[in-house]
Design brief:
The protein has 153 residues and is of the alpha+beta class. It is 31% helix and 20% strand. The chain is flat, with a radius of gyration of 22 Å. The N and C termini lie far apart (60 Å).
């Protein structure tokens, strides 16, 4: 028996022209056909996938589902992978290694960075300042944001 990964997302554009399958645990994004999309929706409703169900799929689609962890063994514990990753991240944050902050803004970002690709679309008057501190300065990483200020001009 098999199951769909808990971390799968089925995405359909509003016009029904294309269908996407995203697995957030392994960060995989795939464009699939309408029939494949509908098959996966049926699997979601059932909760489990039998070997017989899998045998009805094309070989290439089955390979995609297995290799990308979209379909997994029903006994596979995905939560343990998430917990293991979290443990590694926490260990790195609690060590004296560098601390990284990733900001992923939308295209309507107004931080007004000089290298921004938005050009004239950028909003004026916003300044973003970052002060540099050694990792030991932060101690508890929750104080990381205290060193960042965003001011309107």
């Amino acid at each position: 028996m098999y199951k769909l990964s808990y971390y799968n997302f089925l995405i359909q554009d509003p016009n029904g022209q294309f269908f996407l399958l995203y697995n957030s645990l392994y960060n995989g994004l795939y464009e699939i056909g309408k029939e494949q999309f509908e098959t996966l929706q049926q699997f979601e409703k059932k909760g489990t996938i039998s070997t017989e169900d899998m045998s009805k799929l094309s070989a290439s689609f089955k390979t995609l589902l297995y290799k990308t962890h979209i379909v997994i063994d029903s006994n596979y514990d995905e939560l343990s992978i998430v917990q293991r990753r979290e443990k590694i991240i926490r260990q790195n944050l609690n060590s004296n290694k560098s601390v990284f902050l990733t900001i992923v803004p939308t295209n309507s970002c107004n931080l007004d960075c000089v290298y921004c690709f938005e050009g004239e679309k950028r909003h004026k008057g916003i300044i973003c300042r970052f002060r540099r501190y050694p990792p030991s300065h932060f101690g508890d990483t929750r104080s990381l944001f205290s060193c960042m200020t965003i001011q309107t001009g």
